[in-house]
Specification:
The complex is a heterodimer. By secondary structure, chain A is mostly helical. In chain A, about 70% of the residues lie in helices and about 5% in strands. The longest helix of chain A is centred in the middle third of the chain and has 30 residues, at about 245-275. The mean pLDDT of chain A is about 85. The chains are: A mainly alpha, B mainly alpha. The interface of A and B includes residues 150, 158, 167, 501 and 504 of A.
């Protein structure tokens, strides 16, 4: 009772407090940037690290307060800055709360590694990046989403090059700009159709011209296929996300990539549902199935553990997309939420390992964490993601079970191809322990929300059998043919022009798919 | 016409080997989108939406206001992209896609 929002001493309007905190949320890192600049160039003082810490703490406090006050609110609430149909709008909803908490694990863990950013410039860019992330959480309209996305992604281009990995940075930049051009095209078509920019435009204006709005949704979908790394346009994920240090990689592989799912949900699937455009769900379903299987196959051939960790995100995107295409939005968002915790754990854990080509030395505690995180990544029992997956597979066709089982086995095989050696030297570091606690807390919340129940004995047996088979098959295959470790160096597999051709092939193929008489 | 320019941009983006040319092609695509948006707000024989009388007919100011933001973002992207490509040239000695196998 004491912890209930209703027990607040003053009769404050909860929604009004949420509105203030929600609008101020992205302003916190931006204010920190202004203070950093003032300190550096006016007072000749280096306050940056302290200001980043203060910004983090303020955002964590704001997140806790908003969640505490907003837990009982089930409706969506738009906060507009002006009473105009095209005013900047912020949206508070249950789904947004989940994305807010998907942002928290990498944010909390970054407190341990702020010095790895190096220079004042990188630290300031990191704050800009956080402002973009925070803006994406709170925004409620398409154009504002575009602006915040660009702010975030431009920060990411610079942060990837923190270790002078300019090749990865340029690659990320080209794909990011191509998807942003599509996004801008979608906004133009949306405006031409007479629609507002707020995410509920299709509910407010159901009589929109069907061809223009379909073209707009198609471009939105294609932009999010690239931003969210749906197969076959996911070749950039492993090289780009693994190039940065753990602090940045954890953000990129958890929050940044999931803005693709966030955008897909608000700007493609919800409007398509309201306008009765069911073919969009079919399109997302087809690409998600391809992503699940294609993403796991790409991971299988990746040559380093860090690239494998980065590539495993593609499988998760596919599964979240699959859940969304069956309108299981809440399980999809929960999947995203829990992914951010174990993915951050994996990237920070990588720093504790001694990785020499295909041989990896690690502490037994790290080994246990790695096994648990891989099980979470593939959604095998007893992981919490397995619980979410079973919500979908319980009613889905049998071949979906086989597909997810096979993809999970391929991913386990991808991780099992390295030679692991136990070493008693490197006990897991403080950020890894914190990441483990965060992942544990998220699992507990997930269990609380979905209710724990073991999957059927046959399913568990199938998962255990697949895991053992994948372990044995992959390790013996790569041990017998060591040259297989270099297969991802083939030119046909890594070529920017071919990958860009794939992006536009996906656009035209998706247009043809939507025009087909399904 | 707009579609033709966009296709020129896409063709250049896919076929050009030079990274600077790729960035130029991306700019062509993006600026065509911006031009298209401003055209969406155009009205025949209407005035520009500033220093006007209350009953004057003006073009739609919203696309212009929004695209100003998009132009600023585009300029920032171009500056950042060129800076990264220059650094890439310092480290690899080339800006040709075919010479950088990791790209």
């Amino acid at each position: 009772m004491l912890l209930s929002p209703a027990a607040l001493p003053l009769q404050l309007n909860h929604l009004e407090i949420i509105r203030v905190l929600w609008i101020a949320f992205p302003a916190v890192p931006l204010t920190a940037v202004a203070c950093c600049m003032l300190g550096k160039y006016l007072f000749r003082r280096e306050w940056t690290l302290h200001l980043i810490r203060i910004s983090h703490i303020l955002q964590i406090l704001a997140a806790v307060t908003v969640t505490w006050l907003g837990l009982g609110i089930t409706d969506d609430h738009y906060f507009v800055l002006q009473e105009s149909p095209v005013s900047i709008a912020y949206l508070f909803s249950r789904e947004k709360l989940l994305f807010l908490w998907a942002y928290m694990p990498p944010l909390i863990l970054s407190l341990f590694r702020l010095k790895s950013l190096g220079t004042f410039q990188m630290q300031t860019v990191f704050l800009f990046y956080l402002a973009g992330c925070s803006g994406l959480i709170v925004t409620g309209d398409a154009f504002n989403f575009f602006v915040y996305y660009e702010l975030m992604i431009m920060g990411a281009y610079v942060l990837i090059s923190v270790k002078q990995e300019y090749i990865a940075s340029v690659k990320y930049m080209v794909f990011g700009a191509a998807s942003s051009a599509m996004f801008l095209g979608a906004i133009v078509l949306l405006y031409s159709s007479g629609a507002y920019f707020t995410f509920d435009f299709a509910h407010q204006q159901p009589e929109l011209p069907i061809y223009t709005i379909t073209a707009s949704l198609l471009l939105f979908a294609c932009a999010f296929f690239v931003k969210g790394a749906f197969f076959p346009v996911s070749g950039w994920v492993a090289p780009c996300h693994s190039a940065a240090n753990s602090l940045v990689s954890a953000f990129l592989a958890s929050f940044t990539i999931f803005t693709g799912i966030l955008g897909m949900y608000y700007m493609v699937l919800l409007p398509a549902e309201a306008l009765g455009l069911d073919s969009f769900f079919l399109l997302v379903r087809v690409l998600s199935v391809l992503t699940v299987i294609g993403g796991s196959l790409i991971l299988f051939w990746e040559r380093s553990l860090k690239r494998c960790i980065a590539a495993s995100t593609v499988f998760t995107i596919g599964l979240a997309g699959l859940l969304c295409s069956y309108q299981l939005y809440l399980p999809a968002m929960l999947y995203v939420l829990i992914h951010s915790s174990y993915k951050s754990l994996l990237f920070y854990l990588y720093e504790d390992l001694e990785s020499r080509e295909t041989e990896i030395r690690l502490h037994w505690a790290s080994m246990l964490m790695l096994i648990s995180a891989v099980l979470y990544a593939v959604g095998f029992t007893p992981s919490a993601t397995g619980q979410l997956k079973s919500l979908f597979t319980a009613d889905a066709a049998f071949w979906y079970k086989v597909l997810l089982l096979a993809a999970g086995g391929i991913i386990i095989g991808g991780f099992a191809k390295f030679q692991y050696r136990l070493s008693s030297r490197q006990f897991p570091s403080a950020p890894v322990i914190t990441a483990l606690l965060t992942a544990g807390a998220y699992t507990w919340v997930l269990m609380h929300l979905t209710g724990f129940s073991l999957p059927q004995a046959l399913d568990m047996l199938a998962e255990a059998g697949t895991a053992v088979l994948a372990l044995l098959a992959a390790s013996s295959l790569f041990h017998r043919f060591p040259r297989l470790h270099n297969i991802d160096k083939l030119t046909i597999y890594r070529n920017l022009n071919q990958e860009l051709l794939l992006v536009f092939t996906v656009v035209f193929a998706s247009a043809a798919f939507l025009l087909a008489p399904w | 016409m707009m579609m033709l320019i966009i296709f020129v941009g896409i063709f250049g983006l896919i076929t050009s080997d030079n990274l600077i040319k790729k960035i130029m092609c991306l700019s062509i695509i993006e600026n065509t989108m911006i031009l298209n948006f401003i055209r969406a707000g155009f009205r025949e024989e209407a005035a520009a939406p500033f220093l006007i009388t209350p009953d004057a007919v003006t073009v739609d100011p919203i696309p212009q206001a929004l695209m100003l933001t998009a132009i600023v973002i585009g300029v920032c992207f171009n500056a950042l992209a060129v800076a990264c490509i220059v650094r890439l040239h310092h480290t690899t000695g080339t800006i040709l896609v075919s010479d950088i196998h990791e790209l």
